[in-house]
Every structure is written in structure tokens, then in C-alpha cells.
């Protein structure tokens, strides 16, 4: 049984859209998106601003990365730390990465106060993530294997034996195969190929 989970992380499989929470006439719409970089974040927020062009605030938090974490929390005009951080707290609470949560607020005419805002943004983020399909993925390392065509059978036998995932291959006189390997297995797989005559392997 595999008990080493150090190279597993959790994220969401698909977007969650428009989860509604109301407090004193203010409406909060929660959205969650799988994201991999800041361009993804920017694109999703721009689309939401078009969709909810008459809203007052588009507060958000995101986190991506597995070993080197990047995160940000944005209050978008709400009092400092009353929106972005409560949203980010839910990303941490659900132990997720590669995710963006946006809460769109329509002001209902009654001020909620900082405590009320913290509670509303936190609750909306929580309800949104409760709707999400959370999946586990492995942290992988990619290796490029280069070899002559005559060594094809040796390489392919190891790939098959070790059940390795090929992400790209160029099979001509000089062959190149890119494999994706779970982090915890990476050292072992590297050593196997590295010991073979006329076959080169490097991390990419």
C-alpha cells in the first residue's frame, strides 16, 4: 500500500459558477476556477466583470504551484483584509492549489461592517468550494530520454514495466521521448535510464 502522499496535491476539476449568498440585501456570487498562472486569473476576472458589470466589488484570492506556492488576496475596495483574506482562508481550509475564487458583491444599501463582510466573503467562498468537484493530482517531474532507434526496445520495455506516462515522443533515427514521473519515483526512474549504455536522460 502506497502511504507516501508527499507528492499529491488537491485542486478542483471544473469551474463552479454563481453560488449565491445573501446578507442584509447584499448579494454575493461565488465562483471557483482551476487556474495555473496569473494570465488565467486575469482572464477569468475580466469575464466576470463583463458578466456582472453593475456589481460593486469583485474580490478574489488565488493560489497556484505545489512546491513553490504563489498566492494573492484582493479586497477590491472593501475594507482591508475583509474580503480577500477570508476567501484565501477557505482555499487553505480545503487544502487546495491551482485555484481562483472570486466573490462578486452587489451592495444592498445596508452596510455590513467589517465583521459582517468577513463572515459573508468567507461563507460565500466556503459554499462555492463545497459545490466543487475536488480531485487529487500528483506532482510530476518530466524527463527527456534520447537514444538511437536501435535501442528503442530497451527503452520501451522499461516504460512499460514501470507504467510510465509518455507525454511526447519523436521516433526517428535519433529518438526522443518525454516521460512524466511521480516525484517520489523520479530518482529511481532517472537512475534506471542513466545506467543504460547509449541512452541519455535529463530533467526538463
Automatic annotation (TrEMBL):
Belongs to the IMPACT family. It holds the Pfam family Impact_N. One of its GO terms (biological process) is regulation of translational initiation. InterPro entries: Impact, Impact_N, Impact_N_sf, Ribosomal_Su5_D2-typ_SF. This is YigZ family protein. Residues 24-128 form the Impact N-terminal domain. One of its GO terms (cellular component) is cytoplasm. Gene3D superfamilies: Impact, N-terminal domain.
Amino acid at each position: 500500500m502506497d502511504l507516501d502522499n508527499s507528492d499529491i496535491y488537491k485542486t478542483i476539476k471544473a469551474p463552479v459558477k454563481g453560488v449565491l449568498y445573501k446578507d442584509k440585501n447584499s448579494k454575493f456570487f461565488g465562483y471557483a476556477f482551476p487556474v495555473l498562472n496569473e494570465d488565467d486569473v486575469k482572464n477569468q476576472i475580466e469575464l466576470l466583470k463583463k458578466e456582472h458589470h453593475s456589481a460593486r466589488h469583485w474580490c478574489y484570492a488565488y493560489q497556484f504551484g505545489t512546491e513553490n506556492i504563489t498566492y494573492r488576496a484582493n479586497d477590491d475596495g472593501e475594507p482591508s483584509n475583509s474580503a480577500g483574506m477570508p476567501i484565501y482562508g477557505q482555499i487553505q481550509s480545503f487544502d487546495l492549489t491551482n485555484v481562483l475564487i472570486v466573490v462578486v458583491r452587489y451592495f444592498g444599501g445596508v452596510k455590513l461592517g467589517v465583521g459582517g463582510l468577513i463572515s459573508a466573503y468567507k461563507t460565500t467562498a466556503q459554499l462555492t468550494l463545497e459545490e466543487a468537484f475536488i480531485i487529487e493530482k500528483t506532482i510530476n517531474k518530466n524527463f527527456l530520454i534520447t537514444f538511437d532507434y536501435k535501442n528503442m526496445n530497451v527503452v520501451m520495455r522499461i516504460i512499460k514495466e514501470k507504467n510510465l506516462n509518455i507525454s511526447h515522443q519523436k521516433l526517428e533515427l535519433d529518438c526522443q521521448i518525454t516521460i512524466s514521473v511521480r516525484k517520489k519515483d523520479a530518482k529511481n526512474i532517472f537512475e534506471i535510464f542513466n545506467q543504460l549504455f547509449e541512452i541519455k536522460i535529463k530533467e526538463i
